[in-house]
Each structure stands twice: as structure tokens, then as C-alpha cells.
Amino acid sequence: MRPGVALVLALTAVGGSQGCGSRVTTAPSDKKDAGAAVPDDAAVEIEPVALGLPEVAAYGWRKRGGQPAFRLAREAEARGDWAAVVAACEQALAADPVHLEASWLSAVGLAKLGKLDQVLAPLSRAAAGDFSKWGQASLELPGMQGFLATAAGAAWRRRVEQDRRRFAEAIARSVIVTAAGELYGVELPARRWYRLTRSAGVVVGALAVPAAHRIAYVARTRRKATRAPGREPGRELGIGVVDLVGVKTWQPIPIGPGPIAVAYSARPPLGLWIGTGAARAVQWRQLDDDYRLHPLPPRTARPAGPWLEVTAHAAHLHALPPDVTADWDDQSLASAIRIGTSNRVISVPSPGLIDGNTAAWSPDRVRVAFVAQLDDHCAPGAVNTAAFVADAATGRLRELERAAGGVALAWLTDRTVAVAGDRGVAVHSLDDGVGSILIDGADGLIIPRERPRCAPPEPRDDPGEDAEPAEATAGDEPLDAGVTNAR
Predict the structure, then answer these.
(1) Which residue segments constitute the domains of the chain, with CATH numbers given?
(2) pLDDT tens digit string along 213-258?
(3) Which residues contact 410 (CB under 8 A, 6 or more apart)?
(4) FRET partner for 234 with CA separation of 20 to 30 A, picked from 27, 46, 169, 442?
(5) Distance between CA 460 and CA 229 in Å, rounded?
(6) What distance in Å separates the CA atoms of residue 236 and residue 89, rounded to the nearest whole number?
């Protein structure tokens, strides 16, 4: 029996756990003989399933019951025992059906063993649950080429391209949040979570670049041993990129101990710019589309537009909005702002100061949201930062939320604002009588929180020595068979 036909017969009714399975169908045959062989070019299609996972906790399989068996699978992979790999992955999935790494490695093992009619079920579970990691990887891995040569494999190629578009569209509808040091897209109200980064929980800050459909993120990376003086093994900052159209995440390139600056240039040399060095002598480098850094001439000026400043433990966004003016101080704070479209002057109760870098127009440009520092006499636990929305035409001010640990905000629609505060991330509606909705599991937004300037940023601990290593991502390095690349 041809592998594609066997796969259809075996998996037509197979569905993955948590909505991550796939169902294979074939076009109706004109042949009256039901036992007639299906030709190699018979139409095989893989029906779409839900992408992502229903909650962020579902991505925590490394801390659940299937991980011990999965470690055995990795050991078997290292010695090339693919039968043992598949057996151990089956044990891992029996203990934890949403262990996506076990699903992926099981699919690779089955392909290596020539059991091509069994590849699709675990492969579709892995790719649907974490598409940006395993979607493109499934097309590039050498060990998958035998499966891809089958009719079902050709259908899988089509499914990946269709899901690439679906994933990009889902992220465009999502709010980008942080959870345990990683970036995710959360689609509301469906509450589907889509993982965007895999840096072992050490993303420090990120800059959205809508013009390029990309997110640049800065993470702490572990520096390797070097003979250079003053460069002992340890942590430094690295720059990574999430391509929201190609649906690909690039792991961080080590840059240095920081601080570093990240900006985007809409003029040649086009693309992301990474700056290092003292504030008055920043050395800029351009990150090209092939993920390589190119030094720019000395004393090159920072490109116009928003830019991100990152240290080892904190990030700060510089992004003064259009049509909003004020007598900003050297920290972009002001006691009042003037709305250019209506000439209205807006202030917060004294001695509050408005943070200009947080001010953002609603999509319909009817309202301005911003974060204000309520006072500068900081004490431990003082609730002295708040999110506000002002009507541009009338100047009417509305307070949304206060926090002790800083506030960040982002518009979702003309009348909904996401606010990151002490309780996590909540979506506030501006409609009367409609309260806020908490996004369970989210602890921040892609936009860094702003704290009172008198309060030092809260330090973040590195993962413990027993933390799992960061996962490899398609595009990080050549996709050969082996321990790292089969993940």
C-alpha cells in the first residue's frame, strides 16, 4: 500500500489533544471499485485546525509529567536509536498529551524509521501548537524529506503555507504580551495563545516595528568562554527578531553587556539599527535581512522615530507621539500636555507628571492614553503610577488603573485599552457599564512599564542553574539530523 493511502486510511478520524490534531481527506474517486488503488497524484488535503494553545500554562510541558520520558528520548536521539526515540516519546505523550516537543521528535523519529504513514498525527500536533517553531522547520529538516515526497507530504507543504497566513493574521489580531520572560500573542476573545520567543525566559524588552511587520527583542544571553581580557563567561544582552509575516523567530545574537539601543530606519540603510556605547558616542550597526550586523560610520545619528533603551534588567521606550506637545523635561515628563488637533490642555492632579513616551493615540485618533507619575516621593509599595485616557476634543480625563510596580498601556481598538499593572494585564473598555477583563497568565505588554523616576527598576532573577536550555528555532542554524536540530 502506498504511504499516502495508508496514512489517509489510518488518520482520517484522528484528532489531536487540545485541538492540535489534523484530519486528512481525499477527493471523491470516480472509480466504482472501492478497492481500486488510489493514484499517486490523488488529491490529499489536510483540514485546518486551531493554532496555538488555550492558555500559556500549556506551553510549560518541561515542568510536567512527560518530561522525564522525553529526556530519555533525547538521549536515544543522541545515540541514533530512533526506535527508542519513538518509544520514549510515546511514553512522554501518554503522560502529557500536550508535550509538543515530544510530538515533534516522535514525528522525526517515525520519518527516520520509514513509517511515513504515521508521521502526520504527531507532526500536526506540534506545528499547530507552536507553528513559528515547527511549521517551517518541518519543511527544511533533512530527515523529513522522505515524508514530504509522499502525497500526504505534498499536502502538508500546502497546509504549512496556509497556516503561515493564518498564523500571521491571528498575530495581527492579537495583543502582544509577556509571560514569564517570553513574548506571546493573545487573540481575544478566543483566548488563543501563540508563542513568539523561546529565550529561556530572559526577554528584557522589545520594540514593535509595524512598518516591517517585525518585533525586535532584547534578551539576556549566556556568553561563552573567551580569551579576551575582561570577557569572562556570563550574561550579556543579545538582539533577536520575530518575523510576523514569514512567521520565523531568530534567536538572539550576542551584542554586549549593555546598555544597548534598538531603532528602526525607514531610510537607507533600511532596517533595524543596534547601538552600543556611551550616550554621546553611540556606535550603530545595521541588522540586515540575512541576520548579519554591519557597522555604520562613526557619529551616525540615530534614525527618527521610536527607539528602545535596554540595560541588563530594564527597558525604556522613547516614543513621543505626534500632535501632542508639552514642555518636556530631560526625562520626557510634563505637568500638562497640549492636544494639537483641538488645542486642549490636559493635566493630571498636582504634583502628577505625564510621561510623554507613553502617550498614544487611539486608532481613530479621538482619544489619547498615557501613563502619569502621581508623585516623586517614593516609598516601598507606594501606588503612584496610573493609566489615563483623555478625550482629545473635550479634554475629559478618565483614570483606568493605578499600580505600585509601574504601568504600560496599548490600544486594542478605538474603545479598548490593554493596561499592564500590579494584577497583570487587563483589557479596559471605555463603554459605560463595561468593566475590565484580566488576561490570565500575562504579566506585561510588549511596551515596557513606566515606573516613577525615583524608584529603581525591579531586578529580575536569571533562570536557575537547573533551568532547561533555550530551545532551537528553525533558522538558528543548519537543520541537520542530530540532537539540537530535531527539536
Answers:
(1) 3-26+41-172 (1.25.40), 200-313 (no CATH), 318-459 (no CATH)
(2) 999 999 998 765 444 455 445 579 999 999 999 999 999 999 998 8
(3) 175, 360, 417, 418, 445, 446, 447
(4) 442
(5) 27
(6) 35
